[in-house]
Amino acid sequence: MKLGYLTAALLAVPLAFSAQAADTIKIAFMDPLSGPFANVGEQGVRQITLVIDQLNAKGGALGQKYELVTFDTKANPQEALIAFKQVADQGIHYLFQGNSSAVAGALTEAVAKHNARNPEAAVVFLNYGAVDPALTNDRCNFWHFRFDADAEMKMQALTNVLAGQRKVKKVYLINQDYAFGQAVERAAKAMIAKKRPDIQIVGSDLHPVGKVKDFSPYIAKIKASGADVVVTGNWGNDLSLLVKAGRESGLKVDYYTYYAGISGGPTAIGEAGDGHVKQVSMWHGNVGDPQSEALVLSYRKRFPDAKDDFFFLSLENAMQMLTRAFNETKSTDPLKVAHALEGMKYNAVTGEVTMRADNHQLLQPMYVSTFTKGAKYDMERTGLGFKSDGRVDAKDTALPTTCKMQRP
Fold this sequence. Notes:
- The chain is α/β, with parallel strands linked by helices and 408 residues long.
- The protein folds into two domains: 8-149 and 292-363, Response regulator (Rossmann fold), CATH 3.40.50.2300; 152-281 and 365-397, 3-Layer(aba) Sandwich (Rossmann fold), CATH 3.40.50.
- It is 37% helix and 20% strand.
């Protein structure tokens, strides 16, 4: 039976556990491992591999080691549903996915339907990076838990910083044309209008996901608009190619981003981004505490040839909280584990985090940072890294929810 797909590079990465062991707790990881966003999916595999290696070195959970099984979604909802059937057929009860809210939307519905029909074979969906707000609002369900902040939570932090920049008068929005990008666009327009009504939105583009090879026409529009700032939720190649086109055209703007630190972003930005690129994130490598530094260094030691950096702290938090749920319930039963995750508090690298029981959204500190020279830990060996502009406490990230949770 096919277990998903890894690129040749990832196939060379040794995992610290047997693929056929019968006494392991299987963890499914579903993300793009081919196509234009493969580099992001591959980075995710490396990151969860590190976390699982570290947990296994401490005994795993309930005397069992974790086993990672990867599946390629190609960042496509239809492909993800095919892969989910494989997950269910293999009897895997714990599923991670993070790249593409469109994929997450398809998966959360598929998981809910599968679990209603097959309660004895339920699957828990651990969302580490798909941040469409609807997933923990109108589309929430008991079996879905999100460990990243949603698009609106992040935009609150980002626009707080933007509002304080009095020199900014014109903003251009460019985002991917799907649920997440549309959510970023809506949140930016609403929050900028509320916090800085004097700022003019001089343009707003939604472009096809993963299809644009040359962003120079978009850059020409941004230049012509006279924008001071570009706000974008783009990720992967869609961000790298956007920034690359801006650099090559000599565009002089500040970028306010969600994912500048993700695979390929720092290299594409380069020195032209020094002091001009901001990012909102759940963590970055220069937060400054010993645990953060240990995470940076352990990832670099484990994957020295990748020359990228740990980004998704959500993978660390999710695996740690899942392990706690196993140990507290003394069970791997998905229903018991899901109930244990509800309301769970965990002392993470960045401080205490809480899984909201009412909508299954993790509340955690958020950081706004600037890409600059002189950071202790640079990104992708560019000589530039992120330095914090400010931190938002976990309690201050909470937003109202429309979720009406139906529990089994």
